[in-house]
Amino acid sequence: MKNLKRPLILLIVALLLIGIGSAVAASFNSAGGDVDVSRIYFDTERGELSGLLYKPEGADEEARPTIIATHGYLNSGEMQDAQAIEMSKRGYVVLALDMYDHGHSTGTMEKPIPFFSFWPQAMYDAVQYMYEQDYVLKDDEGNGIIAVSGHSMGGFSSTHAVMLDEVDFQESGIRKIQSSLTMGSDYQWVKTLGYTDEQINASYGPRPSGKIAGVYDEFFFNAEAAAAGQSVVKKDYVSTAEGLGFLGGLESAQAGEFYEVDGGQRIIYQPNETHPWNHFSQQSTEYAIDFYDTAFSDYGNLVAIGEDGQTWMWKEWFSFVALIGFFLLFIPVISLLTKLPFFNWVYTERPAALSAPKSNGAKLAGYILLIVGALYPALFFTALYSANETGMTLLRQISMITIALSALILLFSFVKNSAKSVKMGSGLILGLSIVQYIFLRQQERFFATTEWFGGATVNPILFWAINVAIVTLIILVGYHFVSKKAEGARFANYGLRANIKTIISAFVTAVLAVVIGYAVLYLVDAIFQVDFRLWTVAVKTFEEQHVWALLRYAPLFFIYFFIVGISVNVNTASSFYDGWKGYGISILHFIGGLILYLIYHYGLLFITGTGGYPAESLSSIIVIGLVPILLVAAVYNRYFFRKTGNVYVGAFLNTILITLITLANTVLYTIL
């Protein structure tokens, strides 16, 4: 019983964090119960759309002005909760929409060019559905009192929805969309559908229309920078030809001021924010409230106009409390599971700590492994994720040099009849270097979005992760045979030694722990209609297609978590790294270089107006999401190695949990 006390206390703490965090988050999400929040699904010609419907009390008896808000590429409807919470508590009906192949929505349309399969029609399909609902207000002429709003790709979809609505208006005489507000999007992707600036601007007609254009947006609002492939620069959209055209073709204009165009009011807001910052910003939310106050000023009898104050961030902070509880939950759950027969096979004899390196050479080798292990994933992230040709060429050249050197050392070791460790080490490095070179040549294949691997942004992350694993293993092998083997290190010291029973038990333990964790999430979702999140880091419910994708991706991501986990164990095998030092090194291995990448990139953007990697827009945003999730992986890796004596539980748990979290939070093309 004594051995159960600590995990039981941790279990209670984790469940309290989840329960209290979710309950309070739900209270803010529903305006203290005055707004009914539910997930809805509806069929369309192109598949099935889903979203969170925020319906204020009394909306069923008296129809309300309505806002449909949607997310950007890779995200889901929950990313619009600032708008959803603030506007629904003011009396609006709000649908936070998952676009096709994002979140809980599925697109069954043909997808010859996947990126153009979902966003052009998603918002207007949602408008068609919402227009038919009795709780959505229509005026005396049948026009819908509906605003469309979207961030990034959701902005493209919202803009195109207005255009489609205007085409329908020419035939029906009814406008279903009353106003539009986009965030973090300009016209460049809408124009790829064949439209001109003039056609887009004319489509707004008399509708109140607004744009939130971040000054430090990584993608949009500077056509020249985008055309040059150097878009991560400071922007002033209101002074550009496109911005001035939106405002009616003015010669100059001011951000934050309404201008009358074609009988409607138009405005551009310019917060000092980056692209993902828009949907986690009190400033952008204040702009959205200001816009809707103007757009719906005639409906003050149904919705609150001019009401100050924001509460959405409290929902976010308490969802974060629940998120902490969720990640903490796996420690006591696995600890308790492994008290049971079969599950207790996960334990192996905890390897004895090696003595700290004594020679300067051994110390230097350790520092090199640590520095390279931390910096390599960041230094070559742009090459491996964005296919930067200069970086890829350098990587292939380094790989060829490594092949040549290891081959020469191997040949020399046989000629001189060198020690077995020299032959084995150089032979392994030669083999791994050849594998790496072949793998680097497969980048285009890995980047392809296929029916089997439908995660368009998961694929380049996977390519990066496997390459990091191979290079890490090359360095690890060299370090072992040059330094650690002489100190008496064996596979057991790195957490590798285990029989088949241990490995099977570790796998089943990790699977069951994830099932338990997600069962708690689904229970919370059913009771409170919230998930666990902070900003872009979210653990959310998923659909059947995400499970099938997990089975395809997880074996490949296991390579990364397994090898990097071993590398951390190699570098912390001495007694010097007992306690918190070991956790620090583990974290440094996983995310140290990525943090430096973000500091350099965004530090220069804010200081000089040009990002450290001005061509890296999406990839840098991906890094922002990777850092917190890999921080969790680093802690799990170290904790479960220390607890079980081997690498397997941590590697399996990280693989299953983080792969599932990633797939459920990004685009997943289900049919191609």
UniProtKB/TrEMBL annotation:
<feature type="transmembrane region" description="Helical">
    <location>
        <begin position="364"/>
        <end position="385"/>
    </location>
</feature>
<feature type="transmembrane region" description="Helical">
    <location>
        <begin position="397"/>
        <end position="415"/>
    </location>
</feature>
<feature type="transmembrane region" description="Helical">
    <location>
        <begin position="582"/>
        <end position="605"/>
    </location>
</feature>
<dbReference type="InterPro" id="IPR022742">
    <property type="entry name" value="Hydrolase_4"/>
</dbReference>
<dbReference type="GO" id="GO:0016787">
    <property type="term" value="F:hydrolase activity"/>
</dbReference>
<protein>
    <submittedName>
        <fullName>Alpha/beta fold hydrolase</fullName>
    </submittedName>
</protein>
<feature type="transmembrane region" description="Helical">
    <location>
        <begin position="460"/>
        <end position="482"/>
    </location>
</feature>
<feature type="transmembrane region" description="Helical">
    <location>
        <begin position="550"/>
        <end position="570"/>
    </location>
</feature>
<feature type="transmembrane region" description="Helical">
    <location>
        <begin position="317"/>
        <end position="343"/>
    </location>
</feature>
<dbReference type="Pfam" id="PF12146">
    <property type="entry name" value="Hydrolase_4"/>
</dbReference>
<feature type="transmembrane region" description="Helical">
    <location>
        <begin position="503"/>
        <end position="530"/>
    </location>
</feature>
<feature type="transmembrane region" description="Helical">
    <location>
        <begin position="422"/>
        <end position="440"/>
    </location>
</feature>
<keyword id="KW-1133">Transmembrane helix</keyword>
<keyword id="KW-0812">Transmembrane</keyword>
<feature type="transmembrane region" description="Helical">
    <location>
        <begin position="648"/>
        <end position="671"/>
    </location>
</feature>
<keyword id="KW-0472">Membrane</keyword>
<keyword id="KW-0732">Signal</keyword>
<dbReference type="InterPro" id="IPR029058">
    <property type="entry name" value="AB_hydrolase_fold"/>
</dbReference>
<feature type="domain" description="Serine aminopeptidase S33">
    <location>
        <begin position="62"/>
        <end position="164"/>
    </location>
</feature>
<keyword id="KW-0378">Hydrolase</keyword>
<feature type="signal peptide">
    <location>
        <begin position="1"/>
        <end position="25"/>
    </location>
</feature>
<feature type="transmembrane region" description="Helical">
    <location>
        <begin position="617"/>
        <end position="636"/>
    </location>
</feature>
